[in-house]
Amino acid sequence: MKKRNTFKKVAAMTLCVAFAIGGAACDVSLVATDSTEDLKRIVATVDITGDDSFKSDGEFANCASIVKNLNGNVLKRDLVAYFLSAGSTYINDYGWSYRQTFTQLMEDLTSRKIVVQYAAAYYLTEGGDAFNNTFDAYIAAEKAAIKEDAKLTKLIEAHPEVLTLKYFLTENGTDNTDYDKTVYSLKKLINDSLDSAEATYIEEADLVDDETFGVARTTPTGVGTETEDYYDTNYEIYTGQNAADSCGSYERLDGSTQLTRRKAYNDFLSNLSRNGLLKEKEDTSDFTKIDYYYVDLASQLEQALISKFADDLTESTQLDKDYVEEKYAELIGSQKLSYGEKNSTAFETAIGNVSDDSFVVYSPKDGGRFGFVYNILIPFSATATQELSLYPTSDTDTAVQKLHFTKRAELLNSVEAKDLRAAWFSNNDDNNYSYKAATNAKFYKNGKASDYLFFEDNFTNSERYEELSQYLGQYPYNGTIEKDGDKFVSFKPNKMDIDGFITEMEEYIDYALGAGESEDKAVGNPYTGYVDNGNYSLTKGKFDYSQFMYYTGQVSLTQTAKKDFFNKDTDAYKALSAVNELMFAYSTDTGCLNTYMGYVVSPLSDTYVKEFAYAAQYAVDKTLNPNAGVGQYVVCATDYGWHILYVSFVYENGAENVYGAFNYEEKDVEGTFSNLYFESLKSATADEDMNIVQTNILGQYKKSGVKLYKSRYEDLMSIGE
Description:
Blueprint: H1 16-20, H2 36-39, E1 42-46, H3 64-67, E2 73-75, H4 76-94, H5 98-126, H6 135-145, H7 150-158, H8 160-169, H9 177-204, H10 258-274, H11 291-315, H12 321-339, H13 345-351, E3 370-379, H14 382-389, H15 398-412, E4 434-436, E5 452-454, H16 456-460, E6 479-484, E7 487-493, H17 498-512, E8 522-526, E9 538-539, E10 542-543, E11 549-555, H18 571-586, E12 599-601, H19 610-620, E13 632-638, E14 641-651, H20 673-705, E15 706-708, H21 714-717
Antiparallel strand pairs: 1-2, 1-15, 3-12, 3-14, 4-5, 6-7, 8-11, 9-10, 11-13, 13-14
Helix pairs in contact: 4-5, 5-11, 5-20, 7-8, 8-11, 9-10, 9-11, 11-20, 17-18
């Protein structure tokens, strides 16, 4: 089961004041007006052990002493830090006053403490042998392991909640995964923040050659994203007082030196000191051995325990076949009522919002077909655009419009496709997405292309990084690269006319599908109705927009079932991934990048220019084109240039099971519709269950277990009054 964001309103504390101040979205200075001692004041205490459930005959009898080891104090600096990181959402987005905002923030902070304490009591009574009378022995063993380190021993004595939380996260030390992930996440957050601060010093020192090559280019969603389960137990915080090479998988910034890192670290320490978060004369050579680190470690461990508690409670959530199929039938029924028997704008809106957890499983009858297309736009040059503008367009004067179309057809001959990914190269390693790959590891086009690919981490280190979705990742930069030693100097893309690009696309699709040298999977032909000589047909004053289609083709796919749209093992997914990658490489239409399935094609909408709209309908609607459907591609012309449309998905008229009936046997097959639907339903069901659990816990313990000292933060609530 995937980890979920449970207890969303019970927010995890970020790195308190030191980092929150730098990213504060509010204009009000809170910390500067508070004295150091004032920030240390307790503004709330949480202790649920006074409830009857902790008495000798209660369900949590004998748990109180251990639960009391968990820090139930909320300090004023915690409230201020939380405001700086989250308060702007309430004020700017909801229009709340400061009083309303701080009231809610205190509600969040105390609620988290309640849930943490309850989770500990729950594990002590329901956790089985792992938590059966082992607490004292575990704590004693942990303390014994560090007894030779006086500094660490002192910190543990000052923050007993750390070992208590670790006890529950590791199930008495038998499984350190959750604890190690939490520590890794905290250290990474600190390093990321120090990296941001250090970058300013590197820039000032002009140590980095970060020349920009080409126009900034959107990258695929997920680039550099670590997998949910990755962590590194050797990962350490790099302060400049230690060696970066000793920090595990941490990679320092390009141009970083120990001097620039120490400057960033000193700034951070100064910020801590100014806000009373660094003890006088505290040894800061090892950040993991200062008091502030343990404050934040405890905060992160609290949130980890809440997540563990929520997941453990809902892990046993069983959705049997009958229940899931019933819910699926209910979804079909409700959508049938919503969209009616005919097309509706409601349906068009709905498919525009489909996602991994928002499904459209019914399509209306009688009214054309809906679908999705990817759009690769190969544009006119600035000069051609200017020249075309001299030929006006007209909705009423067909003669004027014909002249415009005729000139456009002439200028289309000069349109050239070129690889736009030069911006993904950089001499600064931190901004460089390229890497030189083995010659047998990717697609080559007659030796023309370079041997540079992109996003190495995502494709070669699956243990740490997520694989990019719908992105094949084997199309190298198509052009020549000039280097001076190890430095990139310039990039010259190979230019192709529209015929050359179509050939390139078809060959890359063939490559993606593993076609042999004499085998063609993507096959097309020039469209016989294309007109480029001005002889455009008119019917009742309207142009025949089929005459602007230049080329049509079809990818021969054996696996086009809609239920397998995201199944990476299907040929439809591989072909789609190849086209998507080419879109990132060549298209100047950035609106289609990183969309779920592409642009919505609708017989209702007039959003698109008429030539594009006709070609898109031709590609998805079998009443216009018997070959229409997934894998169909059409090339058409508009005033923007050449459009290459590729059909990714089509809704059939009146389908009551768009993806086919839910198949319970495929619920664990990743990428299938049944898997996506099952996981979405399971997550939603678990969230509903957890909301009930949360409500019950807070309802039982909040009144007796929480004490607020409002006078100590009244100055914050009264801001603006």
